[in-house]
Amino acid sequence: MQSMEFPLVLFTVLSQAAIGLTLMRAVRTTSGGEEAAGRTEWLLIAGLMVAGLLGSLFHLGHPLSAPMALTHLGTAWLSREVLFAGLFMGVAALAVVAGNVAGKPALAWLGTALGLGVILSAGMTYAPPALPALNNALPAAFFLTSAVLLGAGFGSWFADEGLRPLMVRIFTGAVVVGLVLYLVAPCVWLSGGEVMRMTGQAWLASGFYWAHLGVLAVALAVAWKTRDIPAWLPVLVLIGELVGRAGFFADTVHTAANMGGLY
Amino acid sequence: AGFDQNEFQVFRNACPRNCYDTCSIKTYVKDGVIQFIEGAPESTYTDGGLCVKGYSYTRRPYSPDRIKYPMVQDGRRTGKWRRVSWDEAMDRIAGKIMELKERDGSLLGLGMTKYSGNFGITNYGVEGLMSSLGYTTRFVGTPCWPAGIDAQNYDLGNMWCNDPEDMVKARYVIIWGANPAWCSVHSMKYIMEAKRRGAKILVIDPVFTQTAAKGDVFWQPKTASDGALALGMARHILDKGLVDRAFVENNAQGFEEFAAYLRENVTVEWAAEQSGIPAEEIREVAEEFAQADPATIWIGYGMQRHTNGGASVRSIDALVAMTGNVGKEGGGARYGHLQTWGFNYNAFIQKQPEGSVGFTGPAAKGEFDLTEGRQASYSDRTVNINKTAQAILDTKDPAIRMLWVSCKNPFAQDFDRPKLEKAFDTLEMVVSVEQFFTETVANSDIVLPVTTLFEEWTVNASYWHYWLSINEQAIKPLHEAKSNLEIGAALSRKMNELAPGSCTLPTEIDTREWTAKEFNQGIYDLFGINDWTDLKNGPVKAKLASSAAWHDMKFGTPSGKYEFRSDLCAEHGHKALPEFKKGRESYDKFRLLTPHTKFGIHSQFVNLDWMKEYNKEPFVYMHPKAAAGKGINDLDMVRVFNKVGEQKARVKLTDNVTEDCLLIYEAWFGKGTTFNVQNLVDDESADMGAYKAGAPGVAIHDQFADIERA
Amino acid sequence: MKKQYAFLVDSERCIGCFTCAMACRNYYHQEEGVVWRQVYPLSEEIYPHRERAFLSLACNHCEDPACLNVCPVNAYTKREEDGVVVHHQEKCIGCGNCIRSCPYGAPKYNPVEKRAEKCSFCHERLDAGLKPACVQSCPTKALQLVDLAEMQQTNQVQYPAGYPKMEKLNPSTRFILPKTPKMVRR
Ligand SMILES: Nc1nc2c(c(=O)[nH]1)N[C@H]1C(S)=C(S)[C@@H](COP(=O)(O)OP(=O)(O)OC[C@H]3O[C@@H](n4cnc5c(=O)[nH]c(N)nc54)[C@H](O)[C@@H]3O)O[C@H]1N2
Ligand SMILES: Nc1nc2c(c(=O)[nH]1)N[C@H]1C(S)=C(S)[C@@H](COP(=O)(O)OP(=O)(O)OC[C@H]3O[C@@H](n4cnc5c(=O)[nH]c(N)nc54)[C@H](O)[C@@H]3O)O[C@H]1N2
Ligand code: SF4
Ligand code: SF4
Ligand code: SF4
Ligand code: SF4
Ligand code: SF4
Ligand SMILES: [Mo]
């Protein structure tokens, strides 16, 4: 087991929640209404983002030099991630500060586009060849699912009555996608190369993994039963995503762990 | 910026451990602190590189675990150590010595045990210190290689091996019970070169060692059956008419008797049955070995640590001799040598104070005692170093009351550890001169901090190769450490303060001066140097007439020939011929082997934090089939136990060992661990060793034990 | 081909003695837990005897280095003149990205400096015409310094069993496979 990289867990999950909220907001504003609540929702988005970014600094050995991380846009997805995250943060800040633009769908769509940039670059950053199980589209898929799930979940707090069912539908869909992804991935790994197989075993033996799946299962059951998203549910789901992400970092086996062994 | 040698002060050092390789070291110092070290490039043997232990020297003087000051322990094994001044420490020690002298009328109550912690020549000052106090009790002998030394002395008249660098010329190499891939890493390049030039490499060992993995053929015979194997090969060579007639007729004595013994008592089938090596194999190898020219055998120290070890070595010597490989470049029965050790032993030879009373019975001398005939009438009392515990318990009139331990770690390296603890508990005072808080230190009352190789001057020779190295003081002693010699001087100062004339050792000693005093013209001529300070330019190699030992066929035996029949051997209570001797009867379920680890020299190095980076814990090695029978899985914690005691460790399953064998490498893992193989090794003697080393060797590998999940 | 310095790891000669690993530590005094060169035993599926054949590995000075590509602050450079991948620790902000990304586990986190570090091929010694500390130390010459542009291609392999096959990175290290002796057991 590697480190669970708590700062990275915070950053990725919170930023994905923020991006998901922005995406859901864009969807809802485009489907009509929603102008009024804009500012509070943007405040939450910006807050999550600030919390995530601050958290992320803790994983740097030298946080004060963080701005230097923008200097290798040429090949480093991490530089790109930082850039997108910064721009996204800027949009959120603008929305909070300038009340008159907060409600504009265009702003939400701009934020969404930048947010997807964050998710894509994070997906690339955490998909290195050194982690064979994740050296594919899975990280991006996991991250996008988290974004949609959390976005729809927390978005339900802000959705007008009329758009609530849309949030519930998207939320339920994301839970199902998440469950399928997380159930299938380790099983597929088990029949892959040695380090993939080790990763599959590590995930299936991990408390993080099962706790996360448990939360998703509860979310599905509740959403199914109530045909709604109770106000507490997004908070539970957030905790579930945090736990799942901790497992993502802690239980994924690095190729270097098996040097001298079969690959 | 590129590396710039001018930023450093460069010193010459030498590894003083009990190791074949005795490497020449270059030490790079900046601001009085060692930055890094490397092997001296001048020595073709060291060839610019050390070993994993050698490179950890950069850490050793600065280890946080080092003993820094003289300390006194309030109650043995309590760990309640108090720092005291050198003066107070010396006061206590000198006081005790005076008390002993008064009580016993002699100093025989003071025992001294020293072995191979540091083989630097000036460190014989420890023995010198004892002599300068009076006649004392000495633990003599060696746990290391004595059976083989005696065997070679009977057969050849001395232990003298070819230059290891000439192994490249061999056409056939047998590594017999040695593991140079771990214990003499610098020799491996010669074996590999011989192999590259077409020689066949056969490794004979009960364990599939790292050395075996580098050979062409690996034989895994029953432990302690080597004599039978060698004799079986000899019989086949005889039958095939492959004996070197010229050698056995002109340069040997007793070959026909040996041949008769072989014909009457030995068959290849018998050897196969004794050893477990198929007869076909024995025949094939015997023929190849006899026909290869030259062919050589490296006789390991590991294989002679048996109740029949000396006899086995004699059989192997015979195999080499009858094929005409003795005295030949690229050939030889290689065991060791002391050809380059002709120093003055100025530090060693000290006069007893006027009127000292000593021992009048027979006394023995150690294998490194090259001072033949230079000592006076009265003598020290000698006891067997290989039975340290028993000797302490048994010695009376006077009993051993006080023990001086230096360059030696009895609790890690001597035998029957439970008994040793009991024995130490009878001692009134134990003084340890040490670098680390070993188990022996834990069983001492006073510990004195000793320097590392970088902090003193000395000179180092090898018992294997023919290079000579100076060891300069590269840094000032850290903390309050003093060299063995300086400690002697400090004690002498105190003794003379309390009772003038009670110690003859000078009260001020400069280790550089004393190093200089060790040299003589013989050394200069042998190495082709004008002055010892020439060694500051790098190590030098002896100017050898031939790389072959015994190249002039003038043997050191009574007959001046190679002695297949040694009457001297018979006089010492053994067989005159290299006959087969059965090994020790088993006393438990599994054979237990406790040989040497690659990460340490005995109790040294494994404890260093740098070393633990690569070697974190000890293991027991066991065959998977044997483990299955006991419900033991890989990496389980197990308990190995026998009549001596028990030891726990995790187990690694491997067919590198046979089903009836357990293997644990000796090591001391440092503070906070109790791992110690001596909990499982008794003090049974080997057959030989008393003749040249002063006491028989130890049957370290004739041990047996059982195992279960812990 | 351009000059590319590389390690030649001859497992036929290697005795797994860890001398190379300690020689590196002796030279750079890495913090506890930080290992630039490690000696890995081959598993029994690859070499049939436990802990008897090894791969001595440090950074592979790849043609297309993952470490360099993923570093957000450009702390890595690949030297034009000899292909050595140098880590410039003073630039590093300790994000850990190279550590996660190098499939060979070459970069390590220094908990005291709070920055990454790795083998930079003793480039300061190379520049002075000396061998790397580890190469010089190896008692069997199992570890050698070679220039891929000039090396005679004979029995070396790039991806032996026990070593991750990362063709995109194109690691420069080359290997000679270990042999087994004839076994005569009772
Ligand atoms: N079970 C088992 N036991 C064995 C063996 C085995 O194979 N198996 N091997 C045997 C063999 S071959 C040998 S040679 C012996 C070795 O036995 P020892 O000679 O006792 O071995 P070391 O552990 O090398 O050194 C002893 C101590 O000397 C200290 N020392 C180092 N330098 C100095 C110095 O300059 N001055 C002083 N005063 N002390 C110093 C070290 O810190 C160490 O604690 O062990 C024997 N014991
Ligand atoms: N790394 C390292 N190097 C060392 C030392 C060390 O402790 N560590 N110690 C130094 C010292 S003091 C010494 S004495 C030498 C020792 O050097 P070696 O003699 O090479 O080493 P050992 O491990 O004592 O024993 C060698 C082999 O003898 C085998 N053996 C045991 N019994 C038998 C037998 O009945 N028949 C046969 N054929 N083989 C048998 C063991 O399995 C082992 O593999 O090494 C020196 N160099
Ligand atoms: S322990 Fe032996 S091989 Fe290692 S440096 Fe010392 S003499 Fe050389
Ligand atoms: S120093 Fe040489 S022989 Fe020893 S482990 Fe390293 S590469 Fe192998
Ligand atoms: S081995 Fe790893 S650290 Fe070294 S160059 Fe290749 S990717 Fe970079
Ligand atoms: S840890 Fe340092 S060198 Fe590695 S990627 Fe991050 S900033 Fe670059
Ligand atoms: S080349 Fe230098 S830095 Fe790299 S492993 Fe070897 S000694 Fe260490
Ligand atoms: Mo020894």
TrEMBL record, chain A:
Entry-linked InterPro entries: DmsC
Keyword Membrane: yes
The keyword Nucleotide-binding belongs to this UniProt entry's keyword annotation: no
GO biological process, alphabetically ordered: anaerobic electron transport chain
One Pfam family of this chain: DmsC
Residues that span the membrane, as ranges: 42-61, 82-101, 107-126, 138-158, 170-190, 202-223, 229-250
One GO MF term: dimethyl sulfoxide reductase activity
Keywords associated with the record: Membrane, Transmembrane, Transmembrane helix
Coiled coil, from the record: none
An annotated GO cellular component: plasma membrane
Designated name of the protein: DMSO reductase anchor subunit
Source organism of the structure: Pseudodesulfovibrio indicus
From TrEMBL, chain C:
Full protein name: DMSO reductase
Domain 4Fe-4S ferredoxin-type, chain residue ranges per copy: 5-33, 51-81, 83-112
The keyword 4Fe-4S belongs to this UniProt entry's keyword annotation: yes
Superkingdom of the source species: Bacteria
Gene Ontology MF terms in the entry: 4 iron, 4 sulfur cluster binding; metal ion binding
Keywords: 4Fe-4S, Iron, Iron-sulfur, Metal-binding
Source species: Pseudodesulfovibrio indicus
UniProt cross-references to InterPro entries, sorted A to Z: 4Fe4S_Fe-S-bd, 4Fe4S_Fe_S_CS, ET_IronSulfur_Cluster-Binding
One Pfam entry name: Fer4_11
